[in-house]
Amino acid sequence: MHELGIVFYIIRDVKKAAEENGVEKVSAVVMNIGEVSTVIPDYLGDCWRWAADKEPLLKGCQLKILPVPAVSYCGDCGKEFGTVAHGKTCPHCGSVNTWLLRGNEVEIKEIEVPAD
Amino acid sequence: MDEVKVIEIKKSVFADNQQDADALRKELKTKGVFLLNLMSSPGSGKTTTLIRTLNLLKDKVRVAVMEADIDSDVDAVKIRRATGIPSIQLHTGGMCHLDAEMTRQGLDNLSLEETDLVILENVGNLVCPAEFDTGAVANAMILSVPEGDDKPLKYPLMFSVCDLVLINKTDVLPYFDFNPDKCREYIRMRNPKARVIPICARTGEGVEAFADWLLEQIHLWKH
Ligand SMILES: Nc1nc2c(ncn2[C@@H]2O[C@H](COP(=O)(O)OP(=O)(O)OP(=O)(O)O)[C@@H](O)[C@H]2O)c(=O)[nH]1
Ligand SMILES: [Mg+2]
Ligand SMILES: [Zn+2]
C-alpha cells in the first residue's frame, strides 16, 4: 500500500521532468532505493506496472531499481558500519551515538527516453 | 537494443511533499492554527483518546477533527456524537497515509479562521505515515500496551518523527510483559526530545496531561 503512494509520486515527478524536457515517451525510470527506506522493491515494481500503464507517457516503461546499502557512522569512534547487520549499536566501540549516512533513499536517479 | 538518451533527475520522491508541507505549516502559523498529526497502529486507541481529550479541551479552545480512513466514516461519526465537535472524514482512496496535499484539501473544508486546534487522526499504521510530512505543526503517536515495549526498536522512523508519545491502555499492564521503563529507554534511544505520557483512555487517567501539553503547544504556536 505504501508503495502505491510512492509510485504516484514517481509518476508525478517523471511527468514533470518529461514536460520540462519536451519528452513524449519514457522507456525507463531509474531509482535509487535505500536498503532501510522501507520500500519493498518487488511491491514497488508491481504497483509501478499497474499505475504506469495507465499513463500514455509511461506505457510499458520499465522501472529499474538500484539498491543502496545502508551505512551508519559512529560519532564516538568515527568508523562506519553496515546498518542492517548492526542496527543502532556501533560494532567497533559499542556506542549508540550513531546515525545513518545513506540507505534511506527513495530517489529518482534518471529517466531514459528513446533517442531520436 | 535501441539507443536511449538519459536525463538525470536525482531527486527524492518526497521532495515535493516536503515543500507542500512546509508551505502549509507557514500558512497555519499566519492563521494561528495548530495542527496535530496523531498516528498509531490500528486499534491502539486514537479515537477513544481523542474523545476524552476533546471533552477536556472544547471549552478552552476551538477544535476541529479530521479523521483519515482508507474507506469508512465510523470514526468521524463517533467523534461528532461523543463530543459535538466538528469532525470530517478524509478518504485516502486506498492509500496507507496522508500527505500534505490531502491534508490541505481536508483543511479547506474547515473554517480555519474560527479554529485554534485541528487534530488529524492519521491512518492506523506505524510505517507509512511517518514517511510523509503532512504539514502538521507537531506529530504525536500512541503506543498501546498490548503492542509491546519493543516497538521503538522495530519502527524507529515513527518514533523519531514524534514530539509526543502516549503510552495507552495502562489498565492492562498487569496482563502483559510490557515494561514502561524499558519502553521509555527505547524511545529515548530513537528520539531524546520526545515527551512520553502514559495514559488510560478507558478511565481517562493521564489524559489531562496530554490536554495540558496541547494547550501549551497551541500557546507557543500562537505567540
Ligand atoms: N483496556 C483498554 N482498552 C482501550 C483503551 N483505549 C482504547 N481501548 C479500546 O481499544 C479499541 C480500539 O480503540 P480505538 O479508539 O477505536 O482505536 P483507534 O486507534 O482509533 O483504531 P483505528 O482508528 O481503527 O486505527 C476499542 O475497543 C477501545 O475501547 C484503554 O485505555 N484501555
Ligand atoms: Mg480510530
Ligand atoms: Zn564506534
User: What's the mean pLDDT score of chain B?
Assistant: 94
Instruction: Bin the strand percentage of chain B.
Output: 15-25%
Number of helices of chain A: 3
Examine the coordinates and then state which fold CATH places here, giving the name of the CATH topology of the domain at 3-69 and 103-112 in chain A.
hypothetical protein PF0899 fold
Structural domain count of chain B: 1
Largest interface: A-B, 29 and 27 residues
Oligomer: heterodimer
Q: Strand fraction band of chain A?
A: 25-35%
Structural class of chain B comes to alpha/beta
Proportion in helices of chain A: 25-40%
Radius of gyration of chain B: 18 Å
Overall CATH architecture of the domain at 3-69 and 103-112 in chain A: 2-Layer Sandwich
CATH class label of the domain at 3-69 and 103-112 in chain A: Alpha Beta
Shape category of chain B: globular
- Residue stretches of chain B low in confidence (pLDDT < 50, at least 5 long) are none
What do these coordinates show?
The complex is a heterodimer of chains A (116) and B (223). With 116 residues, chain A is of the alpha+beta class. Chain A has helices at residues 2-20, 41-52, 83-86, and strands spanning 28-34, 62-68, 71-74, 80-82, 98-102, 106-114. Chain A is elongated. Chain B has 223 residues and is an alpha/beta fold. Helices cover 39% and strands 22% of the residues of chain B. In chain B, helix 8 (180-190) links the parallel strand 7 and strand 8 (195-198). The termini of chain B are far apart. At the A-B interface, helix 1 and strand 6 of A face strand 1 of B.
Briefly, what is this?
The complex is a heterodimer of chains A (116) and B (223). Chain A is of the alpha+beta class.
How do the strands and helices of this protein lay out in sequence?
The complex is a heterodimer of chains A (116) and B (223).
Chain A: H1 2-20, E1 28-34, H2 41-52, E2 62-68, E3 71-74, E4 80-82, H3 83-86, E5 98-102, E6 106-114
Parallel strand pairs in A: 1-2
Antiparallel strand pairs in A: 1-6, 3-4, 3-5
Helix pairs in contact in A: 1-2
Chain B: E1 4-12, H1 15-31, E2 34-40, H2 46-57, E3 63-69, H3 74-83, E4 87-91, H4 100-107, E5 117-121, H5 128-131, E6 138-144, H6 151-154, H7 156-161, E7 164-168, H8 180-190, E8 195-198, H9 207-222
Parallel strand pairs in B: 2-5, 2-6, 3-4, 3-5, 6-7, 7-8
